[in-house]
Amino acid sequence: MTDLVIRNAEVDGVAGIDVSISDGRIVAVGPDLPATTADVIDAEGGALIPGLHDHHLHLHAMAADAASVPCGPPGVRDAAALADALGRAPGDDHGWVRGVGYIETVAGDLDADALDRLHAARPVRVQHRSGAMWMLNGAASAAVRLAEAAHPGIERAPDGRPTGRVWRADDWLRDRLPPSGPPRLDAVGAALSRWGITGVTDASPDLDPRSRAAIETSVSDGSLPQRVHLLGAAPDSSTASPQGRVTVGPYKIVLADSGLPDLDDLADRIRDVHDRGRAVAVHCVTRESLLLLLAVLDDVGTRSGDRIEHGALIPSETIDDLRRRGLTIVTQPGFLAHRGDDYLREVDEIDHPDLYRCRSLIAAGVPVALSSDAPYGSPDPWAVIAAAVNRRAPTGEVVGVSERITAAEALTRYLTPAADPGGRPRTVRAGADADLVLLHAPLREVLTAPSADAVRATLFGGTPRPIRVN
Description:
It holds the Pfam family Amidohydro_3. GO terms for molecular function: hydrolase activity, acting on carbon-nitrogen (but not peptide) bonds. It comes from Rhodococcus wratislaviensis (Tsukamurella wratislaviensis). InterPro entries: Amidohydro_3, Metal-dep_hydrolase_composite, Metal_Hydrolase. There is one protein chain. The strands form five sheets. This protein has a six-stranded mixed beta sheet. The chain has a five-stranded parallel beta sheet with strand order 16-17-18-19-20. The protein has three domains: about 1-50 and about 425-470, Urease, subunit C, domain 1; about 70-175, Roll (Diaminopimelate Epimerase, Chain A, domain 1); about 185-425, Metal-dependent hydrolases (TIM Barrel, Alpha-Beta Barrel). It starts with a strand and ends with a strand. The chain is built from 16 helices and 23 strands. By secondary structure, the protein is α/β, with parallel strands linked by helices. It has helices at about 60-65, 80-90, 105, 110-120, 140-145, 170-175, 185-195, 210-220, 265-275, 285-300, 320-325, 335-345, 360-365, 380-390, 405-410, 445; strands spanning about 5-10, 15-20, 25-30, 40, 50, 50-55, 70, 95-100, 125-130, 135, 155, 160-165, 195-200, 225-230, 245-250, 250-255, 280-285, 305-310, 330, 370, 435-440, 455-460, 465. The model has no long low-confidence stretch (mean pLDDT about 95).
């Protein structure tokens, strides 16, 4: 029995198309499908497209971000504003204040002493905008016993005293905070739904069993309606759960800017993952990290599905290597809209053409997928699409005009499957999952000015949530 018929939709640029859905799948696509007793949605000429997939974000960090105090632009731009924001923050049930989005233009290099001058009354931890570092004030440092700890990410002064700055140590720090479970994901799922996102790739590295179980439970109980592809599952993890809506993808490896790994150690790690039958997803945001990875792959070889996360700076001389190795670039041009000024100021001018490449990679035959890196970048895919089109920094300056792509090309990079980012885009066809987005207008009209306002309804297995009327 047919569950739903969407009538008078634009599909693949053709107007007046009906789409019939049953048991979570599309069963027929064509004009003037026979009448049934199924529920009917009149698309009123709006485009019906596959649901968007964000190929790189961090679900639990997004949920935690919503309960945190912003510590950077645009709301906080100097030390006085930061002190005020920390002072006004309500804190959690244990009295801790969690800040996010800090950048050095606000109050310089924050350490425990600097944070104490801003707010010493309660334990405070502030995350750098990159997501790579936490900065703790004196009370927080004492609470987690930073002076007694031996984690390699703990920054120390010449005298051996911890500075309060901790690099790439999220799990270690979480284990030392007052006990709390992973944050709920229902608000994240609702927001993603409003933007037309029906699937996400969670790029959080080294997911602990509790975090993975929380994601699976959220998917199973419907509070997170999106399909989820995990990069942080352990190398020997299974690839199925629950009802196939949570899958395991390549294994995430972070090449941290703060300390690149030894070449042999990285080679051993990638070889081990490949030998287990999994590809790798390698975090590369600098020239040095990319060149290191390519050198290692010369030794260990590549596996189908190997991908590079971010590719924030890709020298032109490496593009042919990327194509030849079959590596996919999962990138985030949305950062240009929020941080483009910082990049133009802080990155060597000779490297400006290499920032968040899109057009040159696509032209060379390198698979490219788009994503948000939320919460560190805007989670709105339509804003990312617009940024890929105009590449404008906040001041209006264009970052890499030759790397612009069309809105249609950018949207396509959100329509590729979780397991094949940058590959063949999904289409509205019989037999496909009925994870769909209904727009208020034909696609060509929507793409003249990409905006989430164009999303009328997002359908999960043919069930819409919600239908919005302009």
